[in-house]
Amino acid sequence: MKHLLSIGIFLFCSYFSIAQERLKKVEFYGKARTNLLHQNLNVEVDTTNPNKANYGHSLIDLGILIRPSNSTEIITDLRIRNEHGGFFGGAVTFGVRRLTLKGIIDDKIRYNIGDIDLKITPYTLYNNSYQTEVNEATIFSNQRSLISYENYFKENYWRQQGAQLEFALVYPNSKLQEIDFNIFTTRHNTAVAASSTPERLFSGFSVVPKTLLGNFGIHTVYLYDLKNTINDIQLFSNRAHSMSGTLNKEFFKNYNFFFETGYSKTKIEDLISNDLNEIEDYFWNIGFKTQKFWGLDIQLNALNNGAYYRAPGAQNIRLNYLTQSGVFNLISNDQVQRPMGILDYLYNDVNYFNQFDESLDAYNPIFNNTMPYGQATPNRKGLSLQLTKKQLLEGLTLNLNGHMFSEIIGVGTEEIKTYKVYQSSLNYKYNRFTIKFGVKHENTKRDGANFEKIDLWSRQIDGGLDIKLMNDLDFISGIKIHEASGNELLLDYDILNNPFIMTPTFYNMKQVLSAVGLRLSFGSHSTLTTSYNIYSYDDSNIDYSINQFQILYKLNF
Fold this sequence. Notes:
By secondary structure, this protein is mainly beta. Helix content is 7%, strand content 57%.
């Protein structure tokens, strides 16, 4: 009897242990935050507009992970948000941020249906990074993480809605190790009869053979209108194809070679006049990386992007520079629209693009004039050099970049613009101190007659100092300086990459954003940050300043 009891206890404990190891059928996770802002505007001769603003919100994002089987998952994120100042819950909103079905078929094919994140290469499908930062201080990067989260900016992925299949063919004991496949189709926009906008889809595939020599890939993306979803007037389509590869350094004595080349074709079919307009162009990008010299990570590459190369999913800008914040929209007694600046881009209600479209969006040349649409910016050729030293001193990392580019064909003239960019960043950690610094200087020039001449320079500086006062308490501070002077010709492009509006614009401005704060950590899942910001903006037409106090609480669970 004694032995039977022991065996029973052993079996029960074994069963209980196995049950604990099984995946849970339902899991909960989420994020919560409260963000409170007080801003005070200072501007000369303004007796008609408000100069104080208090606003903020609280929200909870509840994530639910359901596993109906060992090979299937259902993921959803539910949101409750309350704008501060609402009347008895009148400002409360409910929404669904994500709904995804994912799983594995026969332990071989992965699938995703619903909200999916997609990325291929910088020339086909790639969500380009922010242009208003160089090496941002912690006090600012914490705020920027909220922007990324709200707009689904996860690294360089695009959030799309559709279906995706991923699988691989594996070849053991072979020079060809495996071939990875990625196939997807998403719904880009719905049909709108009022504006004669047809249903639009975005499809693509990527095939990447992995070998002992290196990895190679063939990639295709296709943005296209579906016929007969409305009473069609015009149909748009764009195909972009590329071939890429990386060659392992083991075969080339400490050198890694990489390349990507391809072409695109864009069509606009007018069903009323039976006209067909087309553009097509090519690109190539080739370079190498090495660590052979002086312990430096060195990267050198050359590129040539045709003037009519188009890949909408890779030629994008995150920030809508044409947007206007609702905070202190008008200033001075003359009711002048307040110029937006780096304070608005970080803290206020400006618009960020979380979807791409068929046209090149408006860009701001004083932030990035050389490659405003990322690595795939059309009408560019030139060289780039990057040097990184990870251990110049213990805890010190230094990065230097240089870019020399030019247009391939002139815009509005036969003269071409030349671009030079110099950028450096430094990170240093010593005991309780962390220092960050970054600077980017950019020059644009074009010779010719007086009406053709362009001479523009801009500079961005980021700096930050963090001090760990106690285990759970940090002093954080940062500064951002942005200045520009000169002239440029702002371009508006049509769908076929032709500039149809060219606006002469002159710049003479400087803006500075500085901040100090304290961050209190409650374990590894929640933080409370208080900060004080001083912002000033000065150009040839108007100057103003804004003082800001922020309380930000974040919780992950």
